[in-house]
Amino acid sequence: MSFIQLEDKRLDEEQSKRRSDNGLLRLENLTVDYEMDRGLFGGRSPSVTRALDNVSFDVGESEFVALVGESGSGKSTIAKCITLLTKPTRGSIFYKGKDVSKLRGEELVNYRKEVQIVYQDPFESLNPSHDVFRIVSTPLRRLKRLTAEDKIHQEVSRLLEEVGLDATIVMRKFPHQLSGGERQRVNIARALAPDPRLLIADEPMTMLDASQRFNILSLLFNLKTSRNFTILMITHDLASAKLCSDRIIVIYLGKIMEIGNGKDVVSRPMHPYVEMIMNAIPHSKWLSGKQQQKDTIPSIEESMIVRTACVFAPRCKYATNTCREVEPKLEAKSEARYCACHYPLSN
Amino acid sequence: MLNVSDLTVTYKINDKLLQPALDHVSLQIPGEGYTLGLVGESGSGKTTLGMGILNLLEPPAVRGSGKIVYNGTNIFEMSKEQLQKYRWHEVSMVYQSAMNSLNPVRRITDPLVEVIRVHEHATKAEARDLTQKLLLEVGIKREFINSYPHELSGGMRQRVVIALALALSPKLLIADEPTSALDVVVQREILQLLKREIEERKLSLLFITHELSLLEDLVENVAVMYRGEIVEIGTEDKVLNDTLHPYSQMLLRNLITMESSYEQLAALMSNNTMARVGGQPVPANACKFSNRCPFAFDRCRVEKPQLRETKGGGGHKVACHLYN
Lengths: 347, 324
Description:
Largest sheet of chain A: 8 strands, mixed
Helix content of chain A: 25-40%
Oligomer: heterodimer
Strand content of chain A: 15-25%
Strand order of the largest sheet of chain B: 7-8-9-3-10-11-13-12
Strand content of chain B: 15-25%
Number of helices of chain B: 10
Low-confidence stretches of chain A: none
Number of strands of chain A: 12
Mean pLDDT of chain B: 87
Order of helices and strands of chain A: HEEEHEEHEHHHHEHEHEEHHHHEE
Distance between the termini of chain B: 30 Å
Mean pLDDT of chain A: 85
Number of strands of chain B: 13
Largest sheet of chain B: 8 strands, mixed
Order of helices and strands of chain B: EEEHEEEHEHHHEHEEEHHHHEE
Radius of gyration of chain B: 21 Å
Number of helices of chain A: 13
Structural class of chain B: alpha/beta
C-alpha cells in the first residue's frame, strides 16, 4: 500500500469517525436521475429527469428537521432514498457513519427497524382489509420478533394510547371506519412500533383538514420530546415547518436553496425562492395588491424549458445574467445558515 | 337568483343506517357578483350542498325536504332540457381534483371545443377560436394549448378546468376546494385568476373550502358549516374578525399561520376539548356542537339553537345560545 493510499484510508476513517460523532444521518452528494419516456419497448433513448442534484446535508441526533419544497422539488425522493426504496444514481447516505447501501443481513434489518416512515396519504397507506391491531402488530412480529400474543396485544395498546387513540375502541376497527386524523395516528403508531431512532414524516398533514393539522404536528413534536428520537419532516408548508423544527432545509428542483434555523429562515429569508413562498401565504391583501394581470410567475415546468445555471432563475424577480450562467454554490452566509444564491436578500 | 331553502339530504348506508349530510339548510345567492365562501371540515356536507345546487345528487344520497329555486324555477322539477341549459349555462362547477376531471387521452382543447359546439351550436372553427381565447385568458401559454393533461402540472390543469367552467359564460360558479391539491405559490395564482374572472365577468361565486384563511381577500361573505348545518353566516369581515360561533372560532384559531407560535396553539389545545373530534353522540334536540364546545351549558344540551341575526346586525347570523 502506497503512502497516498494509506493517507486516504486514514482520512476516510477519520471522516467516518467524525460523521458518527456529530450526526445520525448524513447525505453526501446525493444525485438521483429518473429515466423517462423509454417508449413502449424501451427502444427510444431515455430522457433523464434529475430529481436530486448533489444534495448534501446531515441530521443530528434528536433533531427536528423540516425539509420544505414544492411538488417536484425532490423532497419525497430523499425520503425514498433514505428508506432504501430508490437507489441513488450517485452519492451516498451514511447512517451512524455507515454507508446504508452496503448494509446486509442483520445490519439491514436493524436499519429498517431504526428508520421508519409515515406517508402522506392516510387513506391509501393502510391496508383496507387489515384491522388496526394487525396493522400495528405486523412490525412487532416482523422487526421486533415478538411472538407472545399477550405481549403483542399489550404493546399494540400501549402504542395506540401513545398516539392519542383509545385502544379499546380502535383496535378492531378497519381503516374505513376511522377519520383521516385517526388513520394518520394509526400510521404513526405503526411507525413507532419497532422503536425507531429516525422517523421520516412525508407530508403527514396535507391530506387532513386545516383544523386537524396542528393535532398531528403537536403529536409528532411531543413524541420527539418523549422518545428523544430524530424527526425528518417533509412538508410544503413553511408555517408548520417553522412551528416546531430546529432546522429548515429548503429544496427546489432537486437542489438545496437555503438551510437555517427554523425561525430565522421564516422571519428573514435569504433566498428569493423562500421569499416567493412566503408571499403566497394567505393574508389580508394577498390576492389583490399588485395585481399581476396575465403575467404570472412561470410554473415549474415552464421554467424548466430553458435550463439555467441557477435553477430558480426563470422564476426569480432578481435574476441577472450571472444567475443564468454561473451556478450559485450553497455557501455558509453566517453561522448555521447556508444559502445558494448570488444575491441573497439582506433584510 | 338562487334560493336554497330547507334542504335536507341523507346518505343511505343500508336499510337501518342513515347518515344525515344536510340538515335543513337555507342559503341565498341574491344576484350577480355575490361571492360566498362555504367553510367546514370534511364530512360537514359542503360538497353535498354544491352537488345539490347542480342537481347532481345520486344514490346513496337521498333528498328529503326542501327545494332549490333558480330564477323562479325549482331545479328539482326541471325537465331534462331545462337542466341541460341550467347546468353549465347558468351554474358551473370547478372540482377539487383537476387530475381526474380531464380525460387523459384527449387534448385539453377537446372538451372545450365539444362543449361550445354542442351548447352554442357553433362551427368547429368558431369553437376552436373561442377555446384558444379562453385558454389564453386563464393563463395557459400558447405553446401548451395543444397538450394532453399529463403534460401539464396540477396548476395548469386547474386553469383548464376553470376555462371549461367559464366556457358557456355561467352566472354562478361553484368552486369545490379548487386548490387543495396545489402548492402554495400555484394556489395563490389560481385564486388570483378566479378573483379576476369573477370581477371581470360579474360572476357569483360559491367557494367551498376547509381553509378559512383562503377566504381572506377572495369572497365578500362567509358561511360556516358544521355537520350539515350552517352555524354562522355574514360578511367576510364580520365572520373572520368578529367571529361568534365557538366552532368558527375553533376553525380560525386552530390554523397554523406564520404568526402562530407552538406554545400558543398547544395551550389552546390543552385547555379546551374542542380540538378532539367526535366524542359522545349528541341527542337530536341538542346543539350538534355541544359535545365539543367549551362554553356549552345546560340549554345547549336540550334545545337546538336557531340561525338568528345578531345584535350587531348587518346580516350577521349565528346559531348559538350564547348570543340569543
